[in-house]
């Protein structure tokens, strides 16, 4: 018997994997952006599950807009990443500390 | 019964591929695992009768966003000799905090499960109208302003991405529009009288 709780639990697990991935990463910013996509997928899971179990279409509309904004965010983030690599020659998280002190 | 089987197998695939995104050292492997998790969550959305969004997820994310990610990984040449530890020093503590987050969320979700129990028996939505038709009707009537704002956000993303990465060449011969507009005709053209010659 699939209930709403099953889907919410799945969303919670994916969300936590995304949070852990952002925090423990030391290599580069690209993996951090991929973890952001994981977080958005988890939130979309919750929206679609509530939309299905309450028979309300507003959740799916919201997921539509989240997908739009996430695509725009990925495009702008990768553009920032390319500009950063041109100036700094690295995208290592540990090296990007020019704003420190 | 078959739905439960599909749900549990696909969600275990989804969790494993999400862990692979985090744990792989090579970003190309992470990107491919993220493609797998997008496709799997698209299939899981099909179980929830969100057919249009499942197809949009696969088309937009796997077809456009992840290809963009792979292009950037290809162009940036980040596979140097970075074979040191790929996680930082606070990783065990962060994993501990993450496990606490998971346990808290699952506890909160399951502790009041009678709160959701009336909605767990789902009446089928009107199947003579497809999901795409319903979504489109809703989107173009009640949410038309939001739809146009979404289009504007996409336009803004195009402009920002191009203007961030556009780097003009040094000795590029282009028009200088302000000089062209501000030119004075009297300085450019001189009228002279000429005698009529033969």
UniProtKB/TrEMBL annotation, chain A:
One of its GO terms (molecular function) is oxidoreductase activity, acting on NAD(P)H. Its main location: membrane. GO terms for biological process: ATP synthesis coupled electron transport. It is found in: Membrane. InterPro entries: NADH_UbQ_OxRdtase_chain4L/K (IPR001133), NUOK/Mnh_C1-like (IPR039428). Keywords: Membrane, NAD, Translocase, Transmembrane, Transmembrane helix, Transport. It is a multi-pass membrane protein. The keyword Transport applies. The keyword Nucleus does not apply. GO terms for cellular component: NADH dehydrogenase complex. The chain crosses the membrane at residues 6-24, 31-53, 59-85. Belongs to the complex I subunit 4L family. PANTHER family: NADH DEHYDROGENASE SUBUNIT 4L-RELATED, NADH-UBIQUINONE OXIDOREDUCTASE SUBUNIT ND4L. This is Uncharacterized protein.
């Amino acid at each position: 018997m699939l209930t709403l709780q099953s889907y919410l639990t799945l969303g919670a697990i994916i969300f936590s994997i995304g949070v852990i991935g952002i925090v423990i990463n030391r290599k580069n910013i690209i993996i951090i952006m991929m973890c952001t996509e994981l977080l958005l997928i988890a939130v979309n899971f919750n929206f679609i599950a509530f939309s299905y179990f309450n028979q309300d279409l507003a959740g799916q509309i919201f997921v539509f807009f989240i997908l739009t904004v996430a695509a725009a965010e990925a495009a702008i983030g990768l553009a920032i990443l390319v500009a950063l690599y041109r100036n700094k020659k690295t995208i290592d998280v540990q090296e990007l500390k020019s704003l420190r002190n | 019964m078959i739905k439960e089987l599909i749900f549990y197998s696909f969600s275990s695939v989804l969790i494993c591929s999400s862990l692979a995104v985090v744990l792989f050292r090579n970003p190309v492997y992470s990107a491919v695992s993220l493609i797998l998790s997008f496709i799997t969550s698209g299939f899981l959305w099909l179980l929830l009768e969100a057919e249009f969004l499942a197809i949009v997820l696969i088309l937009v994310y796997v077809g456009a966003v992840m290809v963009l990610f792979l292009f950037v990984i290809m162009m940036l040449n980040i596979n140097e000799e970075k074979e040191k530890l790929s996680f930082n020093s606070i990783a065990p503590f962060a994993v501990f905090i993450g496990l606490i987050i998971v346990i808290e969320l699952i506890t909160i979700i399951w502790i009041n499960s009678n709160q959701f129990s009336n909605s767990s028996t789902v009446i089928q939505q009107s199947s003579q109208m497809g999901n795409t038709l319903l979504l489109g009707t809703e989107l173009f009537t009640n949410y038309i302003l939001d739809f146009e704002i979404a289009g504007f956000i996409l336009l803004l993303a195009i402009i920002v991405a191009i203007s961030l990465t556009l780097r003009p060449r040094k000795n590029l011969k282009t028009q200088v529009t302000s000089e062209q507009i501000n030119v004075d005709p009297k300085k450019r053209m001189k009228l002279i009288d000429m005698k009529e010659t033969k």
